[in-house]
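Hey, quick one: can you model this chain's 3D structure?
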Amino acid sequence: MNKNKDRYLSIILISPSILAVLIFVYGFIGWSIRVSLSDWKGLNPNYTWAGSKNYLALFSDPRFHVDIRNTLIFTGVFVIGSIVLGFILAVMLDQGLKGEGIFRSIFLFPMAISYIVTGVVWRWLMNPAEGSRMSGLNLLFDSLNLDFLVNRWHTTPIWGMAAIAIAAIWQMSGYTMALYLAGLRAIPHELREAARIDGASEFQIYRRIILPLLTPISLSALIILGHMSLKVFDLIIAIAGKQLPLDVPAIYMWQTTFDGLFYSRGAAIGILLLISVAVLIIPYIRYTLKAED
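Sure thing. Here's the predicted structure for all 293 residues.
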C-alpha cells in the first residue's frame, strides 16, 4: 500500500510539469507543423492546406542554399575549434599547474556571458575599418607591424562565418575544457604509468589510451556544440547584423516570420531546424541509453 501511495503521489507531483511540456513544447511543435503546411501570410490566420509547398519553395530558394552553406562553415569551424582548444587546455591543466583553480575559472568565465555580450565585444575586436578608424585586433596587428594579419574579418561570405565562429570558440572552449578535464581526472593514473614502463611515449599514451577513453566525452561535446551551432542567431546579429552573405536559417526564419509576416514559411524553416537538431540528438540519446543498459 505504501509503495502504491508513493507512486501515485509521485505521479501527482510531476503531472503539472508533464502537462506543461505536453502543451508548451509538443503542442506548439504540432501547431508549428500545421502552420508550415498552410498558406498563412499576413496578420490574419489562414490555415488553408498547402501541403509541402513551403518546404519545396525553401529547397529551391537561393537564400536558403546560402544559409545551409554558412551553417556548415560555422558548425565545422566552431565545433572543431572548440573541441581541439578545449582538449589542449584540459591537458595543460591536468599537469598539476600552480593556480589551476584560477586558470580554470578564467577559461570558464566566457561561458557565463551571453552571446549578445560576446558579440558586442567581438564586433569591436573584429572591426573591419581601416585607417584612423582601425580598432581591436587589426589595430594590435598594425602596431606590432604584422600588417599581413590585418583583414576585413566578417565582411566576406565564407571567411566571415569562420571569423564569427572564432568568437563562439572563445566562449565555449572553456566548457569543452571542463568536460575533458573531468574525463582526464577519471582515467586511472596506473594506466599511464604502465604504458610508460612499457616504453610508450607521451604522444603514444594520449593517442592509444587517453583519447579512446575520452571518446564518450568527445561525442557529448560534438552533439552539444553541434546543436548550438545549428541554432545560432544572436551572436551573428550582434557581430554583423542582418547581412545576406552571413545569413543563417534562424535569421531567415526571424525575417520571414516577423518582418515579412510569412508565418507558414517561417514555421517551415523552424521545423527544418528542429529536424536538423533531432538528427544529432536522437541518435546520441539512443547511444546513451544503450550504454547505460
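One thing worth noting: The chain is about 75% helix and 0% strand.
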